[in-house]
Specification:
mainly alpha; transmembrane; membrane; transmembrane helix
Length: 54
């Protein structure tokens, strides 16, 4: 019974590590999209401002 219990605990630890990796990857992906969107919006606003001053 102890072997089964230890195997389950190790399996649960592995699942937790995999979930943590998925969350980190998802967070990085969302952050990358947010930076890209901010860069594009900033570029558009900069261009509109620059054109309005000309």
């Amino acid at each position: 019974m102890t072997d089964t219990s230890e195997a389950n605990k190790e399996r649960n630890r592995e699942i937790a590590r995999n979930e943590e990796t998925k969350q980190i990857t998802g967070s990085v992906r969302v952050s990358s999209w947010a930076v890209a969107a901010a860069f594009i919006i900033g570029g558009i606003l900069f261009t509109l401002g620059w054109l309005s001053l000309r």
